[in-house]
Design goal:
The protein contains 19 helices and eleven strands. The protein is mainly alpha-helical.
Length: 502
């Protein structure tokens, strides 16, 4: 089936006024929830719209908050820019926070994009059962909406801990400001939505490429259980995915990721964000946000392969750290597939050789316009989830079989872990290199309770040797760097001004 890219449709959800329908006259020429949601096609368009915020989220903000806010990647400071920016604050663990809120723009945009998904999913779920069309299609669309709501709340709860829990459309201003729900209440809702989605959605073989599947819903559910350390609940869910959902590892690690035009939603892909290069507006430009800078047209040309290479001079984000580079074992094939190097003639740093994320540097046609998909869940992570789940239940030998599938593809020998503790550390380290630059590291640190331990030590190294972390000679991290080592971000200050609840 030809992939249809999930796009934005003009969709206006009008606020309902009086609830007594016989008193409400809806203009037939006005596009609203009362006039729009009447056919299967309408719900299809609404579901498409619910996916749309993911494209901006993964292109612009998720990697800032969930990857660069770790010891995997760092912000290569360009001292010519002067003022510290919000992205640098995230990388420096110095996000200004007071009274549980922050003005950091990355936090605000990620928060709002998640609630866009939730609001659109709520509108679908509130109305879909009241419209008559083919049951199989209805189940599929409803399952996608439930998956997306669960997915958005899972991101929010891991970023903030407590957030408002909206499950029905907001019909008036008084409903918009909702109290903060506790972490356990949000977890319970995610579990409910993901479970239902997994029963409604088709598996990958029967689903249109790019859309949520039963396997994707079960993977979110298993991830939720693992975050809660509910290992006995996670195991059968993961076994179901492994046994019944048809995923396999790509033989070559490099081929687990799409190019800008091909290899999308491949056999290893459980869920990925869809992009398409070109002028239609579905493109991304992640590599241009990550590439070390200032870089000349000559220096960038071999990386992007475009017909019109252009110099860039922006700040440099998501630069692989020496710590991550050192985490790869000798002979690990994933290292060369994930990281490459470029020499920047114009940098102020003494060492002009910078690493960059090769994993997303795919040849494309035009400058600043890429189409590779972003991997959210891969089958490799399902296997690592299973290894962790089994190990935490004392099933060391079984855990090793799943971990070793990942190591074998990477060209490495079987694990030498011989105890639950050494296996736990082996899986933790394997996740770091297997899933590098896929926005997993921050959540791995928080759910294992290792933020202060690992980021504290990492921050001390950055301060002791700034030049090893891409600072020009004489430049140093700000005084407040690595002082905010909390598991959760503060809630957005702009949103706090609109509600009495935080």
């Amino acid at each position: 089936m030809k992939t249809r890219y999930i796009a934005t449709w003009l969709l206006t959800f009008a606020l309902a006024g009086c609830r007594e329908e016989f008193l409400t006259v809806v203009p037939e020429t006005a596009l609203s929830s009362a006039t729009f949601f009447v056919t299967q096609s309408d719900f299809q368009q609404a579901v498409n719209a619910a996916y749309v915020p993911l494209r901006q989220m993964y292109n612009e903000r998720a990697w800032v908050l969930e990857e660069m806010h770790s010891d995997n990647t760092y912000y290569a400071r360009n001292t010519l820019y002067g003022a510290v920016d919000p992205t640098e604050n995230v990388a420096d663990f110095a996000v200004p926070t007071a009274g549980g809120v922050t003005a950091n723009d990355n936090v605000l945009v990620q928060y709002r994009l998640n609630y866009q998904i939730i609001a659109r999913a709520n509108q679908i779920l509130a109305l879909i059962d009241g419209v008559d069309f083919a049951e199989a299609s209805k189940s599929n669309l409803k399952g996608q909406a439930l998956f997306l709501r669960a997915f958005a709340y899972f991101d929010l709860v891991r970023l903030f801990g407590k957030v408002p829990l909206h499950l029905v459309p907001v019909v008036g201003r008084e409903d918009a400001a909702s109290p903060l729900a506790g972490t356990e209440e949000i977890y319970a809702q995610i579990e409910k939505d993901a479970k239902e989605a997994s029963t409604l959605l088709p598996n990958k073989a029967k689903q249109e490429a790019g859309r949520a599947t039963s396997g994707a819903a079960k993977t979110v559910l298993a991830n939720l259980y693992i975050t809660q350390k509910k290992w006995a609940l996670a195991e059968p869910v993961l076994k179901d995915v492994i046994t019944n959902d048809g995923y396999t590892l790509m033989p070559d690690y490099n081929n687990a990721f799409s190019t800008t035009t091909a290899n999308k939603n491949n056999a290893e892909s459980v869920f990925e964000i869809q992009y398409m290069e070109g002028s239609a507006g579905y493109n991304g430009n992640q590599i241009y946000r990550f590439i070390p800078s200032p870089i000349s047209a000559t220096e960038i040309a071999p990386i992007t392969g475009t017909s019109n290479p252009q110099a860039t001079s922006q700040e440099s984000n998501n630069i692989p750290t020496p710590d991550l580079i050192a985490a790869y074992e000798v002979g690990d094939k994933r290292k060369d597939a994930s990281i490459a190097y470029v020499t920047l003639s114009g940098t102020l740093a003494e060492n002009k050789v910078y690493p960059y994320i090769k994993k997303y540097a795919k040849t494309h046609s035009l400058h600043n316009n890429t189409g590779q998909n972003w991997p959210v869940y891969r089958y490799a992570e399902v296997l690592l989830f299973m290894a962790e789940t089994l190990n935490e239940q004392g099933k060391l030998a079984e855990a090793a079989t799943y971990l070793n599938q990942i190591r074998t593809r990477a060209g490495l020998a079987a694990t030498k872990a011989t105890s639950q503790a050494t296996m736990r550390e082996a899986i933790f380290k394997e996740r770091r290199v297997e899933l590098a630059f896929e926005n997993k590291r921050w959540f791995d640190l928080t759910r294992t309770g290792r933020v202060k331990e690992i980021i504290g030590a990492y921050g001390a190294k950055v301060k002791a040797n700034p030049q090893a972390y891409y600072f020009p000679k004489g430049a140093v991290p700000p005084p407040n760097a690595f002082t905010v080592l909390d598991d959760y971000y503060g809630l957005p200050a702009v949103e706090a001004a609109l509600t009495p609840h935080f």
